[in-house]
Sequence to fold (195 residues):
Amino acid sequence: MGVMAAEGQLRLSVPVAGLRVEIGDWEEDGDGRGFRIPAGFRMLNGLVDLYPVDGWTILRNGTGVVHALPTEGAGYMSIESGNPDQAGLLVTRDELGVRREEWRRLESQDGDHEADAPVRSRRGVQPTHDWDAARLEACRLFYFEGVPESQAVLIRHMQAWFASKGLKVPDDSTLKRRLRDVWAMFGPEAKKRAA
Fold:
């Protein structure tokens, strides 16, 4: 999910209440350097979208400080925390979300992904399992339901997922090998929670 967020394929949002932001436009000086022209302040309530790099950083590190929010057009929106010791907005991974319309957009693309898939050659051995889809399911599980308490629980979940799709179910050792890097990245989170 972090990769999708970083590449702008997934728009992440965070809920805010009474968040003060400065809004304005950018202008260039004679040397081509940009500077801000403030137009005022606004208070934001509800879901606000994040820049892709901020969403990726928060997913990867668990927390991140957001200093600016995306705007429509060429303007800027800078977060004014009012606290000189903590500039920006501190956001945790648990606060991240996806807007309903973004979720629907992703679901509608899911049905079309077969049409967009590259044409595979009929020569050679064809893959038995869709490992890209399996890795996405593992990421979906981690993001929406949390990291499983052990690798064995992850393997059982993935076997049930393959079965629910009517696909051939890989054996334990194949799943461990194929999802080794995913578990290496997210598994420590399960150990932290268990401690």
Remarks:
- The beta strands are 13-28, 34-49, 63-66, 75-79, 89-92.
- DSSP finds seven helices and five strands in the chain.
- The chain has two domains: 2-100, 130-195.
- The CA atoms of residues 16 and 45 lie 5 Å apart.
